[in-house]
Automatic annotation (TrEMBL):
Its main location: plastid. SUPFAM superfamilies: Multidrug resistance efflux transporter EmrE (SSF103481). It is a multi-pass membrane protein. The chain crosses the membrane at residues 100-117, 129-148, 241-260, 272-294, 314-330, 370-387. This is Sugar phosphate transporter domain-containing protein.
Length: 391
């Protein structure tokens, strides 16, 4: 038996293996030091004497006043079977951080691949409404097959769940289409530079619509974010107002989506993966009639023939890849959102854009002026300051 008692002036350590239990004439203080809850009138507890016990915490111990009876709280654990509560909590927190880190890294990598293939498709097939619809359809089909084959457990939903999900699906649909429209008109790097201003939208929406308050440092960090985005916009070589407005609308829509998603996931027994699957299905039903009304099958057929004649069979692979990777990166992002707050999600989403901007400039050989790069750097710096202010 190994017992460690913490006190400000006296810290006795008793090391006696099983010798302690052989003494029958122990004093009352010695008995309370070792096992205060044992006494002859009560049933004997079951203890294994072949393995040492460690007393992790003893509270309210006092030798100076023997006349008063003190209550001792003793927490013990068997050495080779369990661990102190403090150590297990530290390990649990570390494991959670590693898990979130893996989610973020996977999310960013999948997003880079999606943006590359999405831009390739839009360059050859400039119909963003159909492209957005196919992305949602592919993800919905993948998840329904997973549920049917029991690869993934189907969610247990009811009418209240779908009712709560509907505003999330509306915001997701608007944000998805707006971002795709933006990338069909301007470079991927420019779209993501503008979309790096999402934390500003998140703070403003949280402040004026949700009533949340933030320290002055958070508001000050929004200045370089907004200023950097504005500088990048006015110095963009291939500036397009539709592309710019699409990115801005996407920012606002995705902030509402993230906030509504976090609220909708509270108290629900649906995982982040299944939550996004249900969101894709509902968004597909919302988007399909609008896509047909805006573009239509005739335009799609003509554009399909043109793309196949220019690109060849690779165009089909590009379209399939952008649809699959769109679903995967969003699915992983929702698994992350299940673990963190909407504002933290916005920070991770903004930092992700650095890799997307750099990779798209390299792959597509996007021309960029020094002043334009400076604006992007200022916006990214503002995002870093924002994340530090939030912490």
């Amino acid at each position: 038996m190994i017992c460690s008692i913490k006190q400000s002036t006296i810290t006795p350590t008793i090391n006696g293996s099983d010798t302690i239990f052989r003494r029958k004439n122990m004093s009352a203080i010695q008995r309370s030091l070792i096992l205060p809850s044992l006494n002859a009138n009560k049933s004997k507890p079951v203890l294994s004497m072949s393995k040492p016990l460690h007393v992790s915490k003893v509270e309210s111990f006092a030798l100076s006043r023997p006349q008063k009876r003190t209550m001792i709280t003793c927490k013990a654990y068997e050495a080779d079977r369990s661990e102190p509560i403090e150590a297990s909590e530290v390990k649990s927190e570390a494991a959670k951080r590693v898990k979130i880190g893996i989610y973020f890294a996977t999310w960013w990598a999948l997003n880079v691949v999606f943006n590359i293939y999405n831009k390739k498709v839009l360059n050859a097939f400039p119909y963003p409404w159909l492209t957005s619809t196919l992305s949602l359809a592919c993800g919905s089909l993948m998840m329904m097959i997973s549920w049917a084959t029991r690869i993934a457990e189907a969610p247990n939903t009811d009418f209240e769940f779908w009712k709560t999900l509907f505003p999330v699906a509306v915001a997701h649909t608007i944000g998805h289409v707006a971002a795709t429209v933006s990338m069909s008109k301007v470079a991927v790097s420019f779209t993501h530079i503008i979309k790096s201003g999402e934390p500003a939208f998140s703070v403003l929406v949280s402040r004026f619509l949700l009533g949340e308050t933030f320290p002055p440092s958070v508001y000050m960090s929004l200045v370089p974010i907004i200023g950097g985005c504005a500088l990048a916009a006015v110095t963009e070589l291939n500036f397009n107002m539709i592309g710019f407005m699409g990115a801005m609308i996407s920012n606002l829509a995705f902030v509402f989506r993230n906030i509504f998603s976090k609220r909708g996931m509270k108290g629900k027994s649906v995982s982040g993966m299944n939550y996004y699957a249900c969101l894709s299905i509902l968004s597909l039903f919302i988007l399909t009639p609008f896509a047909i009304a805006v573009e239509g099958p005739q335009m799609w057929a003509a554009g399909w023939q043109t793309a196949l004649s220019q690109i060849g069979p690779n165009f089909i692979w590009w379209l399939a890849a952008q649809s699959v990777f769109y679903h995967l990166y969003n699915q992983v992002s929702y698994m992350s959102l299940n673990e963190i707050s909407p504002l933290t999600f916005s920070i991770g989403n903004t930092m992700k854009r650095i890799s997307v901007i750099v990779s798209s400039i390299i792959i597509f050989h996007t021309p960029i002026q020094p002043i334009n790069a400076l604006g992007a750097a200022i916006a990214v710096l503002g995002t870093f300051l924002y994340s530090q202010a939030k912490q």
